[in-house]
């Protein structure tokens, strides 16, 4: 492990597939097998650092990680409930600082990157196969009264998890396939895996994941080759039309789900969409009362009811054969940017936006074969943050992606002759 710590990073990705059972979503802390693996990676790299090895952290990366840490600490100290915010601070530092820095340090060559991307593909194939079976056999989570929603091993209380894992795997498979020589079996295998994963992604009925994947694939293909991007866009569109329209694989439900994205008024309004907009309004109202350092990590759920519009629902419906019917409380604004603004104020917003923008610009500008994968996965995360935030079993995967993006976008200088590698 000390010679190739990327194995632990890959294990972190794969361990998200381990079922955790139905969780109490209101609990302060959830620790999964993937979380433990990520912390083991942090500990391993700490040992490596004590042994005198440079961890490859560039000055700009260290500055950005430091800014995020300081912003979270300031929000915690000035929180309306510092004791509750402390657990949120620890989680934020884990997700946005410690694990990304450890992943960055673990990626020492392109073999390490292939290991991590391959783990994303394998995890996606596992979850995608389970999800496709759930849709075809009607054993998934409830959607429009039918048990057809693909959720993989994550259950109805974490309906977004499978779609995220499958999206990451699709992007990783596409990047790995395009990096191989034309006509090779590795190229064909990567592209075939990406094509297969499109189906479980479709029957996850996750509008956010569809949009984020479309943006991620576009960014990946443009980064790899603009002319190839246009060609693959046409092939992809044709494949979707054949699979969904011609073969009828979830076509009616997928079309209905797409139409619901903008339905927030009138007789056909989608309450999950209107609730999300109301949660954003709530986050803005909380920020208006705590503009500089925010109300503190994990304070949104305490202040929600006093700042929310009256029409906001008390929770979202969830159902499957295991839990029956239940209502899941709305404990966050379902938008990472509004979550940071309400809980960490302008200080946090500047720190996080600076971090994300630096990664995006660096990944887009730097040439090289690893660029498409780093840029595509990063774009998925940044777009998904427009209508989702951290939380759930697969949150640690966001950390791994941020680590990969930082490794590529903000590389450390090459060590001089005689310096430790």
From TrEMBL:
It is found in: Membrane. Pfam families: Wzy_C (PF04932). The chain crosses the membrane at residues 33-50, 62-80, 86-107, 114-136, 156-179, 191-212, 232-254, 345-364, 394-410. One of its GO terms (cellular component) is membrane. The keyword Membrane applies. InterPro entries: O-antigen_ligase-rel_domated (IPR007016), WaaL-like (IPR051533). The keyword Transmembrane applies. Keywords: Membrane, Transmembrane, Transmembrane helix. It is a multi-pass membrane protein. Residues 193-353 form the O-antigen ligase-related domain. Its main location: membrane. This is O-antigen ligase-related domain-containing protein. The lineage of its organism: Bacteria, Bacillati, Actinomycetota, Actinomycetes, Kitasatosporales.
């Amino acid at each position: 492990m000390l010679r190739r710590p990327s194995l632990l990073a890959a294990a972190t990705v794969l361990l998200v597939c381990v079922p955790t059972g139905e969780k109490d979503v209101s609990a302060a802390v959830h620790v999964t097998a993937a979380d433990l693996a990520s912390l083991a990676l942090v500990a391993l790299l700490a040992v490596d650092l004590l042994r005198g090895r440079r961890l490859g952290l560039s000055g700009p990366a260290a500055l950005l990680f430091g800014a995020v840490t300081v912003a979270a600490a300031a929000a915690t100290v000035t929180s309306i409930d510092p004791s509750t915010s402390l657990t949120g601070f620890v989680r934020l530092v884990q997700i946005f600082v410690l694990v990304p820095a450890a992943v960055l340090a673990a990626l020492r060559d392109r073999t390490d990157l292939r290991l991590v991307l391959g783990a994303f593909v394998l995890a996606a194939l596992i979850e995608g196969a389970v999800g496709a079976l759930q849709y075809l056999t009607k054993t998934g989570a409830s959607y429009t009264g039918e048990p057809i929603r693909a959720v993989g091993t994550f259950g109805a209380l974490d309906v977004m998890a499978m779609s995220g894992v499958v999206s990451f795997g699709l992007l990783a498979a596409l990047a790995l396939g395009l990096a191989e020589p034309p006509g090779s079996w590795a190229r064909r295998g990567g592209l075939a895996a990406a094509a297969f994963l499109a189906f479980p992604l479709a029957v996850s009925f996750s509008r956010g994941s569809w949009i984020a994947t479309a943006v991620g694939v576009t960014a990946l293909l443009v980064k790899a080759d603009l002319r190839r991007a246009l060609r693959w866009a046409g092939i992809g569109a044709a494949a979707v039309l054949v699979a969904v329209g011609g073969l009828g694989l979830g076509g009616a439900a997928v079309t209905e789900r797409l139409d619901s994205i903008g339905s927030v008024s009138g007789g056909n309004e989608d309450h999950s969409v209107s609730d999300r907009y109301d949660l954003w309004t709530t986050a803005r109202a909380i920020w208006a009362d705590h503009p500089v350092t925010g109300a503190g990590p994990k304070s949104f759920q305490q202040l929600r009811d006093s700042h929310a519009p009256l029409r906001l629902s008390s929770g979202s419906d969830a159902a499957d054969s295991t839990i029956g019917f239940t209502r899941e409380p709305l404990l966050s604004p379902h938008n990472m940017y509004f979550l940071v603004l309400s809980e960490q104020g302008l200080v946090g917003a500047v720190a996080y936006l600076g971090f994300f923008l630096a990664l995006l610009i660096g990944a887009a500008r730097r040439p090289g074969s690893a660029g498409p994968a780093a840029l595509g996965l990063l774009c998925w995360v940044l777009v998904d943050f427009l209508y989702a935030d951290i939380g759930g079993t697969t949150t640690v995967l966001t950390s791994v992606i941020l680590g990969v993006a930082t490794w590529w976008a903000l590389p450390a200088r090459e060590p001089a002759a005689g310096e430790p590698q």
